[in-house]
Fold these 2 entries.
Entry 1:
Amino acid sequence: MSAEGRLLLVDDEPQILRALRPALTAAGYDVATAESGTAALAHLAVEACDVVILDLGLPDMDGKDVIAHIREWSDVPIVVLSARDLETEKIAALDLGADDFVNKPFGVGELLARIRASVRGRDRRLSGQASFRSAELEVNFATRRAFIQDQEIRLTPREYDLVRALARHAGRVVTHKQLIAAVWGPQATVDAQFVRVLVAQLRQKLEENPAAPRVLLTEPGVGYRLATDEDA
Amino acid sequence: MSHMISSWLRRRPRLVGYVAAILIVLFANLLALIADQALGYARVSMIFLGGVLVVAVVFGSGPAYLAAVLGFVSYNFYLVEPRFTFGVESEDIIILIVFLAVAMMTGGLAGRVRDEAIRARERARTSAVLFQAGRDFAGMGEEAAIAERLAAGLAEAAQGPAVVLIDGQIYGAAHAALPSGLADILAVFDAPGATSAQEGDWRLRTLWAEDRRLGAAAWRSPGSAGDLDEVPLIHVLLDMGATAMARARLSRAWAEIEATDRTQSLRNALLSSISHDLRTPLASILASASSLRAFGDAFDAEVRNDLLDTIQEEAERLNAFVGNLLNMTKLEAGALAIQGTPFEMAESLDRLVGRFERRRGGRAIEFSVEGDRLVALGDPILFEQALSNVLENALRFSPEQGAVEVSLRRLDEMLVVEVADAGPGVQSDELSRIFEKFYRSKSANENLQGAGLGLSIVKGLIEAMGGVVTARDRGDRSGLVVSLMLPRAKT
């Protein structure tokens, strides 16, 4: 078994499989491929897998349905490949349980970073870590305190809930809907505008220059992402 | 002359009747005086009765009553003893009273019959005018045609010149004869409901459709419009015309909405096509290049070569797609210059099949030629482009281990290339539509992406070279056969 674990790459375009396989292998993954949603589900049913890379445009079924099926019985990290202009698709995929997405076309560096963040995210969920730490930001989940460059910053309860939700998924995108559920509760009917306002407040406290954020990054049209050291 | 009299008579029907009644009674007097010499006075009353009857039949009841009274008076004056007085001897009183009663009754009855007949004729004419106009309006989709027809109907109903103004445009044969200034007044004329206004000897009315002003109409009636029986006819006609125009306007607006809708969905299809057909090769190129940069040293030579091949092939694919887009644009603009040169078709096919060697995956391409010296007339580069679109499709829709058959043969003065795939085929009702731009077969999986551009470009290119493209079901098993035909070069 390879160092980084087993990876399933699902895409119906053979040239994409051909282009990605060497780099993923070189990065230490044991790569399996599937050209359809059915094949992917069949593979996952019999083979253990540590991460799935899934193209949303598949010939036999909607990529979102593949995610929904996988999530019925597995919380394997899923990174979605999608076109930049299909925002609603991406958001739906993330809300269905995909861990992150990469816009096509993409460089392998970006893809590998997203894969690592997603896998780490799962590790963090499983290990129930008590704090998040990056070069700039530290969030202590046990004491509900946050520090920027070791200086404590005072956060309102909502600001803290927001930063915690992002820190729990550090490096990965969190959709507006997921943030609303984390801050206002799963039943809340709050406009995404409230999230934007809260993010703007938080950036005043976290960022050196709130107009050019380095810690709390925007994923246009989808949500937000907390930078990890890998993004620096 | 007779026309002038009749039209004059029509314009002044009442006055004419009364004048005629007087004249006819005078004439009856003359006849009676002449007849009196021969017949004696008691019998000439018939002459006056006859005159009253004539007046009644021709001019209606009013003039008939006048004629009866006048006849009674003059009969009394001239013919009843003592003559040339209004005095009456007692035995004649009965005769005179009976005469007057009979004259009044005859005149009244005959006149009423005549009036009824005229009214019935008028009603028939009104219905005919309205019926014909309604039928014509129903058959017209163009606002301008309806306005023109309405102006003609209005002229007929008013028995004078008439115009209709819609959107600043004046319709009707009379628009040249319109008095100066009336057009300007008409353009802004806006009176509520079915009221009309007088402007010189023209009448003006606003055209309404659902309480919205559509335009206005003007007409000139020979008579004083107020007394004419045509007035209700005119208003009904104008309302019908306005409704018809509103309907035409509505259906045009609807058609525009539909056209916008279609344009929008075409644009969306084009965008999703570009999104997929451009991005997939780009994604492969970018992934390969960034892999080489990140891991180049770790890869062995074979992997490096494979990635470089991917970059090259995908760049070629991109180039072909861009070429397709450009050709489509040129085809649509009619700017594609076709260079009609003789070329060996078998060579073209061979070259093309070779180019697909890497792209075909596990699918086989079986290539057969029937006959020799198969020289076609056309542009070999555009032909190869067209055929490559067909082959691309055939490979895409064929299963992994399927075979695509390409054959070339001669058919009279044409050369035929047939590409038969092993895909699911196409419903027969869709066969003609698959060459439409952005059309994607319903049976093709929804998730199978693609622009629906390829075959429309094939059709455009082949037809621009004087060829024919057809599609049919494979017949023996599932699959689609696309035939490209080009004219054979004269040797």
Note: The radius of gyration of chain B is 45 Å.
Entry 2:
Amino acid sequence: MTLAAASHGFLSPTGVEIAFLLVGLVTLGAAVLTVTTRQLVHAALWLVVALGGLAVEYLLLTAEFIAWVQVLIYVGAVVVLILFGLMLTRAPIGRSPDADSGNRWAALTVAVASAAALVWVVVDAFRTTWIELDGPAAGSTAVTGASLFQNWVLPFEALSVLLLAALVGAIVLSRRTKAARADEVSRAGTPQGQQGGVR
Amino acid sequence: MHLAYPAVLSALLFCTGLYGVLARRNAILVLMSVELMLNAVNLNLVAFDVWLSRAAEETLHSGQALTLFTIAIAAAEIGIGLAIVLAVHRNRGTSDIDKLRDTAEGHEPDGPDTDTPATGTAAEKAEATA
Amino acid sequence: MTTTTLAVLVPLLPFLGAAAGLLLGRSAPGFVRPLAVLPTLAALVLAVLVAARQGGGRAVDAVTELTPTGSVPVELALHIDGFAALVAILVGTVATCVQLYSTGYLRDDPRYPSYAALVSLFTSAMFLVVYSGDLMVLLVGWEIMGICSYFLVGHYWETPEARAASLKAFLVTKLGDVPFLIGLLALATEVGSFRITKILGAVASDSLDHPTLIALLLLAGVAGKSAQFPLHTWLPDAMAGPTPVSALIHAATMVAAGVYFVARLLPLFEASGAAMVVLAVMAAVTMVGSALAALAQDDIKRVLAYSTIGQLGYMTGALATGDRGAAVFHLLTHGAFKALLFLAAGVIIHAAGTNSLAAMSRMRGLRDRVPDAYWTMTVALLALAAIPPFSGFFSKESVLGAAEHVATGHTEHAPGAAGWTVLVAGLVTALLTAAYATRLWLLAFRGRGAEAPDHGRQPVVMNAVLWVLALPSLALGGLAFRLLPDWFDGHDLTPTLTTSVLGTGVALVGGIVTYAAWRHTSALAARTPLGAVAAHPEGDAALVEAEAIAAHRPAYGDLASAPDPSDPGRLLLGPVHRHAAVGFHLDAVYTALFVRPVQAGASLVRFLDREVVDTYVRAAGGLPRLLGAAVRRAQTGNVQTYVSALLAGTVVLAVAAVLVATGA
């Protein structure tokens, strides 16, 4: 592989690499917009773009099963959940000036520093490593399924228990207690919800 | 394909998510940033799994299996996380992380953003943390 | 039961009584009095039995070693010779009398249970000292007596006098006990044992290297315990305790422990001529000084206290002449009549409502109020003044005879100088003793002025005890001086003609001169009314006494003396009176020599502690405070800030780890 990698330079990219780079740029841009935009709903929508871009990257890496799972669960379920969350917390539609906390510059410093460190290390370690994408797909549904149900059955079943626990936990957490419900009833009598006014 | 491309993209996505976690005020936006970080890790896992499945004689496809697990756990996480954010929002009337400062010294439970029913809970919390 | 078992029971019974008294004192008040009296009485009976079995013959020795204790073995040893047997009887008799007397004297005292238990404990410790054949075990009893004395002197701890006196008694005796302990250890190191018999054997075989050093160190402890010059100052102040305590501890037993100790180890002291001379000088100074001071005191109990010091001086004088038979003989008779004097004084204080002789001399008919105390006290005072045929005469004459024996060079036991010192001082003291005894009697019972207050009859038990003690005061000397040599070393204790005539003569002179002086001065009494009287004369005797002691200083401006021109002592002593009243300024000397330097050192230490040490302490507290305040500013409660700091640190660490790993 190291010998083979010697013949692949960064200055002569293959088609897959070009496609990966372009989609990667789109994904990264969408991600940056997700964390910087001042409109909360837009952030959720840009997140959809970023996650979808990642699904494309998975496809380019021949991991097709992961890619479809990504589309199904992230784009389909998680983003919808987040949008519901935004709606239930009465997130304002439109630009909100205080979307970023005062911690922004510290966050930027830390993020840039860690990005520099990570990129430096990763590039330094893997600049000659080459992924052979020809041949049978590494992440086809058959391959993934076989490995999942041959080698990973026990963690898979344990994970189902975890998901069940998370399900129950989420229900318990979002249930209203009696006292809270009583409050809600009394608050319904007031002409306008205070929270909306405050927000 | 050079392994460096997905690896660098993953690192950059991770740091973007990191920035979001540290800089965003709304708890749901923070959760979204966490999703970004998780996805960056997933990309890393998939890329290295593809590379190793070619390089090694036998492989367990552990990278892809772990990616699937991560996705499942992320789904669970976002469910629980949103439930917590909703509960906090219901009790405090806000989901801004930098307003939840009960652990600080000299914390005033009667902040301007808290309404009447929230006061009792906040006071209880302040007592519990004190 | 064997003699050994009986002898072991003697100290054990009062100890058990004390423990039971302390445990049951609150829960079962009805048992306190029997628990106080009966064990002591039983111990007395057993002590008599032990003495009867021992019979003055060979000493009874019994040893058991509980456990090895290191280099020099400490053994539970009994060594009962004639001295021990007889002194134990004295201790038992006086302790029983005092316990009986206390049931009346502290009739209504709320602290009676602990008081009685402490007296029992004290009695037990004294028995231990008397019977013990091992010096370490003896020291245990010695120190228990010290601490009991501390508690009992401070029985009226509400009054500042009692508090100060108990502390003083404790500290001064401890001052002597430190060299005493060092001396004991040095002695044991040289001999290789704490056993008295072995030590005496080593002395007999002349194998001690430093007899003088050891003897002088031991003498310091003896001086502290037996109230000899210069460590006697605690005894007059200890009169702030209840009268029965004074009778038991400060007259008959504890102060006798030092004399008894020297008597036991006399061959050791005889091995050092210097120690004998020091002992003689100490005795002489003590005798004369205390007799002069006694003549100037106003508090009746302080007179008796100084007289105790003087009589103890006689005993140490006898020891200095190498005649322990005479010393212990005087110890026995003195124990009887001095206990009687104190107990009678307690009755008088109760009846008169005051402890001041000046106030008593202005009361008419006090003797008719307390006829029992009057007669018994007269007997005891005659014994004290050594008038034949009272017991004090025989014992004192035996002391003087021994001194004359040595002075005229008939013995090798002690240097002649010691003999002359003791003889001359003894005669002078005999004169002074008779003088202050007469003064006490005249002032207390021959008062003129207002009628003495009537507080009803004294408790029967108190009067009965007086008569019990009057018997030995009257007759012990005359009956015993022929028998005692069989129990002791065999020295003849019969009075010699020369010293008898001389001693009785000077005693008579002292008495007559004092009477004359009193006739001269008592007319002045009516002109200067004086008096300090207890606020509640109808209370029980202990309460009256406590109040009388507390009232003395406010009334007269001094604890010891009163500005009374009708006092014959004032006329007799002349310019010396002022100094004698305060014990020849010895307390002031101690204050200048020890108390002030110690206080100065203490204030220096306090200054250093406050200004130097505390600075560091405050800095050690303040620096973390500042750091904490700085760190606290970081605790904003904002989770994002925390995570930012955490991740920044992680990045730094990771980069550092990578740099180290790549060798950059």
Note: Residues 1-5, 191-199 of chain A have pLDDT under 50 and may be disordered.
